[in-house]
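Table S2 (text version). Query chain:
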Amino acid sequence: MQKEILLGAHTSAAGGVQNALYEGKEIGATTIQLFTSNQRQWNARTLSEETVDKWKQALDETGIKEVMSHDSYLINLGAPDPEVLAKSRHAFREELLRSLQLGLSYVNFHPGSALQGGVTPCLDKIVESLKGVKDLFTGKEKLKLLLETTAGQGSVVGAKFEELAYVIERVKDDVPVGVCIDTCHIFVAGYDIRTKEALDSTLSEFDRIVGLKYLNAFHLNDSKKGLGSRVDRHEDLGKGTIGMECFKAIMQDPRLKHLPKYLETPGGKETWKKEIIELRSFVK
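Corresponding structure-token output:
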């Protein structure tokens, strides 16, 4: 049986989480990413039974699968400030509870920022934060926590494969964990993916350091900035410094083609419709 190609975008949950699914259907998506609450506020409302019912109905109507939530931009699971760390851990737990309510496949999160004290203490705090939610997992849930590769701007950790491996190695027995590769982020972090050969080389490095078994999803974004610039500026596919050959290679690689892929390109809905069609045309 032919496996489905899962392509979509980060769609809008304005007016109710179910609307993100309907917007996904509108752009021709087979998967989506969404915010389950306002990503710029600490306090989020819990989901009502009515909301969850509407979500389930929309799932049935749209046929969308492997839905991923993106946690709040405020969360820093490696924060050195005890108050910020406590708020981050609470908000992260609430995000997981909402995602479990909705039966999502993934929660995507930025690992954190080493605002002071160096990278390793920050990574250790992230490990501690993730171990703190292990009580939510009984082994029956499909939900997996995905560390997003970062651009390495400022004090943000997670731009180096070694940093992702450090966290995964220490939490893999406590929580279901994996990685979402953001193509813009790894490129500006210094990993070349512009050609099939460059992508192969970077994937080999990822496999050696982290393990391809932990690669669960992609954010597909071109980049406004150059290789190794460490500046996170997304561009529409084929219009940036990465170029379309990379995305063609990703869609044709047997190791990657069936992983869910989410567009976060700046063009919005009309652009996403075209990009989804073009990405599908690459599949052999």
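Notes on Table S2: The two ends are 15 Å apart (CA to CA). Residues 7-36+45-282 form a domain with the TIM Barrel fold (CATH 3.20.20.150).
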